Fold Transcriptional regulator, MarR family.
Amino acid sequence: MSGLVWRVSTRWRAAIDRAVTPFGLTHAQYAVMAPLLTLRRSGNRPSQRRLADFTGLEPLYVSKLVRSLEQAGLLTRTPDPDDSRAMLLDPTDHGRDRTERAVAAVRALQHDLTAPLGGVDSPRTRALVEALRALLEEETT
């Protein structure tokens, strides 16, 4: 079973890489920028730590990605006035535009990838997502 999960994961990641490359993003950068936009739309201005918690990625990994995204002009980091150790993140206009276009491409890709299960909103896809979430939750307990 682990080989099957690995193969699906690898195929999915490669497909996302191909989908976001035209927008100048890697899969890893997308995994930070898309959630950052989600948090900003909901009125939150996350710190690197909060973004790491939200994505489930390691804080050190997020920190490295954030630095490279800042150097690329896709986001800005500013000190948190309430916590001198924390940096708050904001997408730049350029970063927001690139990421919004990448999100649209990934959504279209998700429809294609889940078609064998009946599409993104099908009961089979929802059951798969619930099962994967249960496995991730089990890992953290």
